Amino acid sequence: MRRIGRAVDPYLAALVGTVVLAALLPATGGAAVAVGHTADIAIGLLFFLYGSRLSAREALDGLRQWRLHLVVVASTFVLFPALGLAAGALAPSLLTPQLYTGLLFLCVVPSTVQSSIAFTSTARGNVAAAICAGTYSSLLGMLLTPLLAAWLIGSTVRFSADGLLALGTQLIAPFLAGQLLRRWTGGFIGRHKRSLGRLDRVSILLVVYTAFSKGMAEGIWHQVTAPRLAVLLLLEAVLLALALGTTSAAARRLGFGEEDRIAIVFCGSKKSLATGLPMAAALFGPRAGLAILPLMLFHQMQLAVCAFIATRWSRRPSAQQPPLTVGTAPTEA
């Protein structure tokens, strides 16, 4: 039992528990309004903290590795959307429109920061490049994710005056405020990094509870069957394998060094749950529901697969590069 307890990610357990709570005790009526407002405030605080943590000097220094960042951005905002559109050929018969909308939204979400850095460090890659690549992806995502979502998904996205206002007030304005006030808040945030990290996670759980509560009220779970969930997981596994294989092959073809290739693979193959869920709440509004389910599933899948890859790469001889082929884990030298 102790081994099982250590193997279960507490945050994953909390996410699953939040979904179960929303299914059993969804917020309705006045409680739904209160929870929704609380989630909006939490999202604003979350992006304020993101802005306060970002060092403009470090971000500018990282521009020297622009080729590496360009590969990561191309994977995040070009390769993934192209693969999502290709999966559309299977959507009518295998996925509901809502699940396919969620899959497309997953494909336009920016890369992660924290887990990309952690896996790059574990695999002995270029950690500084991973920090900058994740940061640039998040910044670009604030602009590109809504634009790509409106283009690929269409009318489901609230890309109207009201939608833009929600996006600006909930995400962009708090982020810019964090940047402007970083001189005064940066030290406090650095000293309380662990406590504020918990606040990040509580904010995400609030978004999940709010979205799934609304979904329960609309009866969306009646549209989800076990076979369709299995197909969704299979499609996401293929998506992740193609992203891992393509980024690795592109990095080798473009002549990047070993440490840079590791950063490219981990930064270019993942999607951010922390950024994606608040964006989904702002872009889809009451219809977020199933739109966030594919991202939640992909998030856990990418963590498990990339942790396995990073651990194996960490044991390789220093003189050799980490081999990776599409659909397979890296082999030890």
TrEMBL record:
| Region forming the signal peptide | none
UniProt KW Magnesium keyword: no
Per UniProt, the keywords (alphabetical) are: Membrane, Transmembrane, Transmembrane helix
One matching Pfam family is SBF_like
> Which segments cross the bilayer?
7-25, 31-50, 70-93, 99-120, 127-153, 159-181, 202-223, 229-250, 262-284
Name of the protein in question: Bile acid:sodium symporter family protein
Q: Which organism is it from?
A: Streptomyces polygonati
Kindly list the organism's lineage: Bacteria, Bacillati, Actinomycetota, Actinomycetes, Kitasatosporales
